[in-house]
Design goal:
A hairpin with a 2-residue loop joins β7 and β8. Strands 1-2-3-4-5-6-7-8-9-10-11 form an 11-stranded mixed β-barrel. It is an alpha+beta fold. 19% of the residues lie in helices and 50% in strands. It has a single domain, classed as Outer membrane phospholipase (ompla), Chain C, CATH 2.40.230. The N and C termini lie far apart (42 Å).
């Protein structure tokens, strides 16, 4: 079984177990009642102009998270995609996740000239996170592409966090990503026709490890519902991504990102 397949099976098992426990205790829709929260915000960042690129640009991304309020304060990261928690007891959280994907074509970068455009779309799937200690959170996401690509992407991250003051927290840890062949083909593949049009070497990727890296952040609790943060990320492309002619001939395996974000949390009852 491929790495993505193993992660898919593990995440699906955990999701079924946690959702089953919720239904057993409260009924099929019992989890709807109670205290909920909605967190919204935005991120401004400097990052490569395309995944695998070597030129940098300023861009913005939304932050959205919805779930049931647990008995303990949770750690959140800007890397968490749009989430709907179906299970949340303070130490274990699981549910649905999604990510919006912008289109990619040669208007984004000259390095993409001659390559087929990637349509805008998204990724939908599930997530599972837990706290092995009081100062660390581990999270896994498994998502399937919609419209932009037809592959799977799995992201795994662990973040240690420490409260320097009651309102200032520092955090950081390792990240690793996997993807299937269909994902890599959309973003890193170069077929015969594209090779002629772009001048890049033909490349037909398989699936496997996508990247490894580190990330860190300083978060300031401005008010009880409002936070702001400064963050930095480094990832190194691996496997089919690193072997792509687009990266080897026109890009860079080393990907850096720095930015700021702010979020606001709304609490409500169902």
């Amino acid at each position: 079984m491929s790495p993505v397949g193993k992660i898919s099976a593990t995440l699906a098992t955990l999701m079924l177990a946690t959702s089953g426990a919720a239904e057993a205790g409260d009924g099929a829709f019992g989890w709807l009642s109670g205290d909920w929260y909605l967190t919204v915000g935005a991120t401004g960042l400097i990052a490569p102009n395309f995944e695998g690129g070597k030129q940098y640009m300023l861009s913005a991304q939304p932050i959205i998270s919805l779930g049931k309020a647990g008995p303990q304060a949770r750690f959140t990261s800007r890397n968490d995609n749009i989430s709907l928690a179906l299970v949340d007891d303070g130490s274990v959280r699981a549910g649905l996740t999604g990510k919006f994907l912008f289109s990619r074509d040669d208007s984004n970068a000259d390095e993409l000239k001659g390559l087929d455009p990637v349509r805008w779309g998204g990724e939908v799937g599930g997530f599972f996170e837990f706290y092995p200690t009081d100062w660390m959170r581990a999270r896994a996401e498994l998502r399937h592409g919609v419209r932009a690509h037809n592959g799977f992407v799995a992201d795994i991250a662990a973040d240690a966090f420490y409260d320097v003051t009651p309102t200032v927290r520092i955090s950081g840890g390792p990240r690793v990503s996997f993807a299937s062949a269909n994902y890599f083909d959309a973003y890193y593949g170069v077929n015969a026709q594209e090779a002629v049009a772009s001048g890049l070497s033909q490349y037909n990727p398989g699936g496997g490890l996508k990247s490894v890296g580190l990330g860190g952040a300083v978060t300031w609790k401005v008010t009880d519902p409002m936070t702001a943060s400064l963050f930095g990320e480094y990832s190194r492309l691996e496997g089919p991504a690193a072997d792509s002619s687009l990266v080897r001939e026109r890009g860079d395996r080393n990907q850096f990102m720095v930015g700021v974000s702010t979020t606001y949390r709304f609490d409500f009852k169902m």
